[in-house]
Specification:
It is a single chain. The protein has 173 residues and is of the alpha/beta class. It has one domain: Lipoprotein like domain (Double Stranded RNA Binding Domain, 2-Layer Sandwich), CATH 3.30.160.150. It is built from three helices and five strands. The protein has a five-stranded mixed β-sheet, with helices on one face. The longest helix has 36 residues. It starts with 8 loop residues before the first helix and ends with a helix. About 4% of the residues have low confidence.
Length: 173
């Protein structure tokens, strides 16, 4: 038996020290500054599941959605939101065995008077999933779940970008 740390812990500690030394840190949840806590979600693609995902992400960030643009401190305008599916691989008979889902969310942020606070941005999330042609229902359920997760991730990333931009505006003289 050796003295000191067990040999298996040493590589982990070395990685932890290196990661801390390079400035790496986990991202925390986005926080919308209090001065912009009332957000109106608008735009041609701010409907249905997209609007619900953005409202949930805003709530997580400490903001609340308001129905009227005139009541808002900031306006999150959703220009486009779409999920596309493409075949990623096929079997020897030409049947799809893997798909790629790509979700894009394009948005911009203005203040209550319409001044641009964050120019148009696009968030893209991509996931692959295996498709079993012998289990179409299971594959459809998996695809629906992945689509929902991609939308939620996109919404959180968009709100994170918005929160950082609003914090910079608030900090500016």
């Amino acid at each position: 038996m050796t003295r000191g740390l067990p040999r298996m812990l040493v590589p982990g500690l070395v990685l932890a020290v290196l990661a801390a030394g390079c400035g790496f840190h986990l991202r925390g949840a986005a926080v919308v500054p209090a001065a912009f806590a009332r957000v109106h979600v608008a735009g041609p693609a701010a409907t249905g599941a997209t609007a619900r995902a953005l409202a949930a992400a805003l709530a997580e960030a400490g903001a609340r959605t308001v129905a009227a643009r005139g009541e808002a401190d900031a306006v999150l305008e959703v220009m486009a939101a779409a999920t596309r599916r493409r075949v990623a691989s096929v079997d020897s008979r030409g049947r799809a065995t893997e798909y790629e889902l790509r979700h894009t969310l394009t948005f911009r942020v203005t203040d209550g008077e319409g001044r641009e606070l964050l120019p148009e941005q696009t968030v893209v999330r991509v996931r692959d999933f295996l498709f079993n042609p012998d289990n179409v229902l299971g594959a459809a359920d998996e695809e629906a779940l992945l689509r929902r997760r991609l939308l939620e991730e996109s919404a959180r990333l968009a709100v994170g970008r918005m929160a950082r931009a609003l914090a910079a505006v608030e900090a500016a003289p």
